[in-house]
Design a protein that fits this description.
about 675 residues; alpha+beta; Helix Hairpins; D-amino Acid Aminotransferase, Chain A, domain 1; OB fold (Dihydrolipoamide Acetyltransferase, E2P); 6 domains; five-stranded antiparallel beta sheet
């Protein structure tokens, strides 16, 4: 193949630069200078050149947005800094309480004229992602995942035209951009019209459609869908300019070619935030994207460091949600569902209604007390809302002349699934089926046991669980580990390969950590966090099972209600037999690391890490401190014992020097760790 002439090489380079320039004008500045037809003409010419001279193709060429061949599965990507979720404020009162906490955390007095500068921006309802640029080139795109580890969707991210493959002049060594992948509402509605015309099922709502489109194994499918991207934050920055405020960072990112959320407003104090919220609320249906609230963030980055974060959410930011979307419809009937703990929950069957882009046919009525409070009856016209824009619920009854003539609804005295008595314990709002062998309870238990936060057995969905229970193949979690390939392959819509994959997933689940197993057991009152607390405190399943109620309630964060629930659970003969069976079937129940004793090497010491560490991640270093009995804090104070300063350390280092806190480098920290381990 002939080498490309210099003239052609120059033309290709010029086309790449012009296409990148016009993408920036179109997607970031919203000021296109050329027509779509002219842009397409330049793109076709570049494609022609690269087809004739493949050696001229560069990874960041605008032609390379349809990535590689379909992936077998997504790899995982650890986030250098956690992608935290936001706490919600549902009304102005909750916003004022958050504002009071921010002022208190910063030691400010509003009455004395001291206030905080905030940045307020629309809360885009999309899929959170992180884009990683190294020396200006996009190298990784990942989903938020669990906040600490996401899925590598780089090839699919590259297909989104609003995502620059290469940043403009002045890019740093490393830039982690956080933002949302979403469907523009206009494009979403157009796509659904076209799907209906083709006889295809339309997508339920923009967010789910965006999530499903980004997680396609074939990037060509993602490329065929009109996804977009807007940035609203950042992670690690190395080699960038000194920027004291979040608004400085977003303005700088826009200059690099990264589209950011608009409109945003700098607000001096809460009163300006409230005005912006009230201005934005009527515009929610006219925006480019689905918007379900306002995100309010402290602008000053040093103030953010002082405020710090909780385990899963920052203290310096909050999402002020818009009022839930509501619609009227007819309540056509009420049925009772039975959950994994035997709870009987009344569910409203509704005349199908569109609420905020989601077709709703069912809504929760919670319990008998709520039915009585609403005085809701079959045949009523009711007001339904998606609480938090997600879970449908009946809000009120719309009065009419026939309401009083309709019979009131009362929960049955017996379980609608198995016929056993349903009992409402004193002091509780929920009635429960008393039969622990009830098929509905078993189905719910198995679905919980196999869920992602528990044993994470992929492929065991609701329909498969129902078949397994109906055919009496599974009556408790241990039976999952007795399933054979032949049994699974004989089920409806189950091919040999699918059966083999599920058997492999079940086998792999035997090696889960203890806290996930404890959570998977489905103990009432025990969520993921409480399961972690119990596993770490007791260290083994046997010690946890033997713990008396008094010892359980004495554990930090447990308390008497959880303690009673755990004690009652492990006192059951069927549960003790279940644990024994799981062990015999190969579930490992590994020992969990107990909290370090008070005499641990780092007991009483507080460490703060700043800058970039070279040998390990900041998360790993903080876990190491905790394992040795110390505490890792997010901000520097007079109570800090050591600040470990890595490359690019900034305001935390400056504050440590100001306060006279001991500052050490990473090598000195590792030396301390080694000496502590030898002690």
């Amino acid at each position: 193949m002939a080498e490309a002439p210099q003239k052609v090489m120059n033309e290709a380079q010029k086309l790449r630069e012009e296409l990148q320039h016009h993408s920036y004008l179109y997607y970031v500045l919203d000021k296109p200078e050329i027509s779509d037809a002219e842009y397409d003409r330049m793109m076709r010419r570049l494609q022609e050149i690269e087809a004739e001279y493949p050696e001229l193709i560069t990874p960041d060429s605008p032609t390379q947005r349809i990535g590689a061949a379909p992936a077998a599965e997504f790899e995982t990507v650890p986030h250098r800094l956690p992608m935290l979720s936001l706490n919600n404020a549902m009304n102005e009162g909750e916003m004022r309480e958050w504002y009071r906490q921010v002022l208190g955390g910063l030691g400010l007095d509003a009455d004395a004229g001291q206030d905080v500068r905030f940045v307020a921006e629309p809360k885009l309802d999309g899929l959170a992602v992180e884009l990683i640029y190294e020396n200006g080139r996009l190298v990784t795109g990942a989903t938020r995942g669990d906040g600490f580890t996401g899925e590598n969707v780089t090839q699919n991210i590259r297909t989104i035209r609003r995502v620059p493959l290469r940043l403009r002049h002045g890019a740093p060594r490393l830039l982690e951009v956080r933002g949302e992948v979403f469907f523009p509402l206009r494009e979403f509605n157009k796509m659904n019209r076209e799907r209906r015309e083709r006889g295809e099922e339309p997508f339920a709502n923009p967010r789910n459609a965006a999530a499903g489109s980004l997680r396609q194994l074939d990037p060509k499918i993602t490329s065929s869908r009109p996804l977009s991207f807007l940035a609203h934050g950042f992670g690690t920055i190395e080699g960038g300019p000194e920027m004291p405020a979040y608004s400085d960072v977003t303005a700088w990112m826009a200059k690099l070619g990264i589209a950011t959320i608009k409109p945003t407003k700098i607000c001096n104090g809460l009163h300006e935030v409230i005005h912006f919220y009230n201005d934005l609320l009527p515009q929610r249906d006219d925006m480019l994207f689905e918007m379900d609230g306002l995100v309010v963030k402290v602008d000053d980055l040093s103030q953010r460091e002082r405020l710090g974060a909780r385990s899963r959410s920052p203290r310096y930011a909050i999402a002020w949600k818009f009022p839930p979307r509501q619609e009227q419809t007819r309540l056509e009937g009420i049925f009772v569902s039975v959950g994994r703990t035997g709870a009987l929950t009344p569910v409203a069957m509704l005349k199908r209604v569109n609420i905020g882009g989601v077709m709703v046919e069912r809504a929760t009525l919670h319990n008998q007390d709520e039915i009585d409070r609403l005085d809701v009856r079959e045949g009523d016209t009711v007001l339904v809302q998606r609480a938090g824009d997600v879970i449908p619920e009946v809000v009120s009854v719309v009065p009419d002349d026939k309401h009083e003539s309709r019979p009131k609804f009362t929960l049955p005295e017996n379980c609608p699934v198995c016929g056993s008595p349903a009992v409402r314990p004193a002091g509780e709002a929920v009635a429960r089926c008393t039969n622990i062998s009830c098929p509905a309870q078993i189905e719910g238990w198995i679905r919980h046991f196999t869920s992602r936060g528990a044993m994470d057995i992929e492929g065991v969905g609701e329909k498969l669980v129902k078949q397994l229970v109906d055919k009496n193949l599974v009556q408790n979690p241990a039976d999952l580990y007795r399933l054979t390939h032949k049994q699974l392959a004989s089920l409806e819509r189950m091919a040999d390969k699918s059966a083999a994959n599920i058997i492999a997933q079940i086998e792999a689940s035997k090696k889960q950590p203890l806290d996930r197993i404890v959570y998977a057991l489905g103990i009432r009152q025990v969520g993921e966090h409480v399961a972690q607390v119990l596993a770490r405190h007791f260290g083994s399943i046997d010690r946890l099972m033997a713990a008396p109620e008094e010892e359980l309630s004495a554990v930090h964060e447990i308390g008497p209600i959880i303690a009673q629930s755990v004690r009652e659970y492990f006192s059951r003969d069927d549960i003790r037999q279940l644990i024994s069976d799981l062990k015999e079937l190969g579930v490992e129940f590994p020992e969990a690391q107990a909290p370090p004793p008070q005499a641990a090497p780092f007991a009483g010491l507080t460490f703060v890490f700043t800058g970039t560490l070279e040998v390990m991640t900041r998360d790993d270093a903080e876990r190491l401190v905790a394992d040795l009995g110390g505490r890792a804090a997010g901000s520097v104070s007079k109570n800090t014992d050591y600040v470990v300063a890595g490359q690019g350390a900034g305001s935390k280092l400056a504050k440590a020097l100001q306060l006279g806190v001991n500052v050490i480098d990473e090598a000195a920290f590792h030396k301390m760790v080694e000496e502590a381990k030898k002690a």
